[in-house]
């Protein structure tokens, strides 16, 4: 078993209009976990609980061996946290912020910070108030990365970035992973970013984790099967098959989405008299949407 | 996703950018270089090892095989599958065989044009 950088078990938190229920999440050391959910799904609340910023009502949270929120001061030495609403001092320069963080964290790596400054196309003498959104995100990320934290927690790091900045950010994150003892958790609405750099994927919707697992087996298991079904043929029920919400059956042609594809499925359809036109892989975005919709559907019934 | 990496590596080996018998980057090095997750590269290396393209020994860097099996046969099968599919759809749409052939030639020309 790989060492865990963090573990959440049975974590719940109830607010007046929202509740996080029974969240379980393991972050294996040396891996990137992508946390995907719609707005208001509970990503930020989960991250805040992980960071000890919000206290859970129930459940246990362990980060780098420290129980949260009790030992958050000790844990935070090893955690780099960047969130969208993190504010830098407007009147101060990027360099001032670098000096400040260096004075607080002994692990600060000045050479690495200077290198990131160049790569992110930032200047130490730039005042924060003149920076674009993308530059601010990169500055905040620089401040977190140069501390060389064992765990990087990033809440929506790539939201609102232009393609070049996104590329720079993703490359810098992967580079941090060159050291196998480092771990990254990042939340995103952009499934493309998650698909690119995540080892492990976790879907959250309406305060519950609806699926999690390693990315490649995720992409392997989900398939869209396009079928030509003659009028007198009824499709046999299949394990893991989800009637496609978009291509519901209107004529002969139909599509079935499955979260556990194997050859037996197409064999069964063919034996029943349907013709399998194609078996297509799905993007993470399609998988996420299908997953959320089928879970919401199940919750209604 | 790993399929794309497998194809890229097969190409690198077939043109000699990754010479036969030579060491190749570690999983983590390649993941960082391509900004692609470790698990994707791991899966691609497993696949390439299974196909006899690379050789992995525990605790040592992986190498390109001396006689990598770059599986030209797979492309044959893929081509046959696509042609059969084109023929099927053509028949479904009532496209005459001559027109289907002409369109295939046009598609080849288009691909050549894209490359130049």
Provide structural commentary:
- The complex is a heterodimer of chains A (301) and B (116).
- Chain A has 301 residues and is α/β, with parallel strands linked by helices.
- Chain A has helices spanning 43-50, 72-76, 94-104, 110-119, 133-145, 163-176, 191-197, 215-221, 263-271, 284-300, and strands at 4-14, 19-28, 32-37, 58-63, 66-68, 79-83, 151-155, 183-188, 200-205, 208-214, 223-228, 241-243, 253-258, 275-281.
- In chain A, strands 6-7-8-3-9-10 form a 6-stranded mixed sheet, sandwiched between helices. A 4-stranded antiparallel sheet of chain A has the order 2-1-4-5.
- In chain A, helix 5 runs parallel beside helix 6.
- Chain A starts with a strand and ends with a helix.
- The model of chain A has no long low-confidence stretch (mean pLDDT 88).
- Chain B has a two-stranded antiparallel ribbon.
- Chain B has 2 domains: 2-64, Winged helix-like DNA-binding domain superfamily/Winged helix DNA-binding domain (Arc Repressor Mutant, subunit A); 75-115, no CATH class.
- In chain B, helix 1 packs across helix 3 (38-50) and helix 2 crosses helix 3.
- Chain B has 116 residues and is mainly alpha-helical.
- In chain B, a hairpin with a 7-residue loop joins strand 1 (54-55) and strand 2 (63-64).
- The A-B interface holds A 30-32, 167, 170-171, 174-175, 177-178, 180, 195-200, 214-216, 219 and B 1-2, 28-29, 31-32, 35-40, 43.
Number of H/I helices of chain B: 5
| Broad CATH class of the largest domain in chain B | Mainly Alpha
Question: How many separate domains make up the residues of chain B?
Answer: 2
Give the CA-CA distance, first to last residue of chain B.
27 Å
Summing up helix and strand content along with how strands pair, one would put the structural category of chain B as mainly alpha
Order of SSEs of chain B, N→C?
A: HHHEEHH
């Amino acid at each position: 078993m790989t060492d865990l950088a963090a573990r959440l078990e049975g974590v719940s938190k109830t607010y007046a209009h929202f509740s996080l229920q029974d969240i379980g999440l393991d972050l294996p050391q040396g891996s990137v976990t992508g946390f995907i959910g719609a707005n208001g799904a509970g990503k930020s609340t989960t991250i805040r609980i992980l960071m000890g910023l919000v206290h859970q009502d129930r459940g246990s949270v362990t980060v780098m061996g420290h129980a949260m929120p009790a030992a958050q001061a000790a844990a935070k030495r090893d955690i780099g946290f960047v969130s969208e609403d993190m504010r830098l001092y407007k009147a101060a320069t990027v360099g001032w912020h670098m000096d400040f963080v260096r004075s607080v964290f002994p692990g600060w790596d000045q050479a690495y910070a200077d290198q990131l400054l160049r790569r992110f196309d930032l200047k130490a003498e730039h005042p924060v108030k003149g920076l674009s959104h993308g530059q601010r995100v990169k500055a905040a990320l620089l401040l977190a990365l140069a501390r060389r934290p064992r765990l990087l927690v990033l809440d929506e790091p790539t939201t609102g970035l232009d393609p070049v900045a996104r590329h720079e950010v993703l490359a810098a994150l992967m580079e941090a992973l060159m050291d196998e003892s480092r771990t990254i958790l990042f939340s995103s609405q952009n499934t493309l970013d998650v698909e690119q750099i995540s080892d492990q994927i976790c879907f959250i919707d309406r305060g519950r984790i609806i699926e999690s697992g390693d990315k490649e087996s995720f992409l392997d298991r989900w398939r869209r099967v396009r079928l030509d079904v003659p009028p007198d043929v009824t499709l046999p029920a299949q394990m893991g098959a989800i009637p496609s919400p978009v291509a519901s059956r209107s004529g002969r042609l139909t599509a079935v989405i499955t979260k556990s594809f194997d050859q037996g499925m197409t064999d069964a359809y063919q034996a029943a008299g349907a013709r399998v036109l194609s078996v297509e892989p799905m993007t993470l975005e399609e998988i996420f949407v299908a997953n959320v919709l089928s879970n919401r559907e199940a919750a209604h019934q | 996703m790993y399929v794309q990496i497998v194809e890229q590596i097969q190409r690198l080996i077939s043109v000699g950018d990754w010479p036969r018998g030579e060491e190749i980057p570690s999983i983590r090095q390649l993941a960082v270089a391509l900004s692609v997750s470790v698990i994707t590269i791991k899966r691609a290396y497993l696949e390439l090892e299974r196909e006899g393209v690379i050789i992995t020994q525990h605790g040592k860097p992986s190498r390109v095989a001396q006689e990598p099996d770059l599986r030209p046969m797979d492309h044959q099968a893929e081509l046959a599958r696509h042609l059969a599919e084109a023929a099927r759809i053509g028949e479904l749409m009532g496209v005459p065989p001559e027109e289907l052939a002409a369109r295939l030639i046009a598609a080849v020309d288009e691909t050549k044009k894209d490359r130049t």
